[in-house]
Amino acid sequence: MIKLHNKQGYISISSEVFTNLTGDAATNCFGVKGMTVRSVTDGFVHLLKPEYKGKGVHITYNNDNTISIELHIAVDRGVNIPVVCESIKDEVRYKVSKGTGVEIKRIDIFVDSMLLG
After folding, report:
1. I want to staple 53 with a disulfide (CB 3.0 to 4.6 A). Which of 35, 87, 88, 98 is the partner?
2. Contact, 15 vs 23, CB < 8 A?
3. Residue 68: beta bridge partners?
4. DSSP codes joined into one string, 20-57
5. For position 40, what pLDDT does the model report?
6. How far apart are CA 55 and CA 82, in angstroms?
7. Per-domain residue ranges of the chain
8. At what angle are helices 15-27 and 81-100 packed, to 10 degrees?
9. Rounded Cα distance, 87 and 36, in Å
């Protein structure tokens, strides 16, 4: 959780806010099939249903009141992965910063799967 302080008091922003904003921003980008998670029981990568897309996001709180974001995604087959990832980074940075006022220090994207379009 991040606490922001202004002249009127404190604002606390939970991890769920960051994960939902990030998941929404990432899955709305061209070429992204969805968020993924690796199963603990069988070790396979699973595509998450849209309502669970925040589970493919991990937020790290840094000492300087910034956050770092880790995303796990599946992309459409045949897309240019570096271009898709740059688009995701731009969109996530814009949506999360605009929605919360918190600076993002780092965004790491893991492409876990490539699926047929």
Report:
1. 35
2. no
3. 60, 106
4. HHHHHHHHTSTTEEEEEEE-TTT--EEEPPGGGGGGGE
5. 75
6. 23
7. 15-115
8. 140
9. 18
End-to-end CA distance of the chain: 37
Per-residue tokens: 14: 């939970």
The whole-angstrom separation of Cα 57 and Cα 52 is 10
Distance CA 72, CA 34 (A): 9
Label residues 70-90 b or e (16+ Cβ within 10 Å = b).
Answer: ebbbbbeeebeeeebbebbbe
Residues in the chain, pLDDT under 70 = 117
pLDDT at site 50:
83
**Assigned CATH topology for domain 15-115:** Alpha-Beta Plaits (3.30.70)
pTM: 0.88
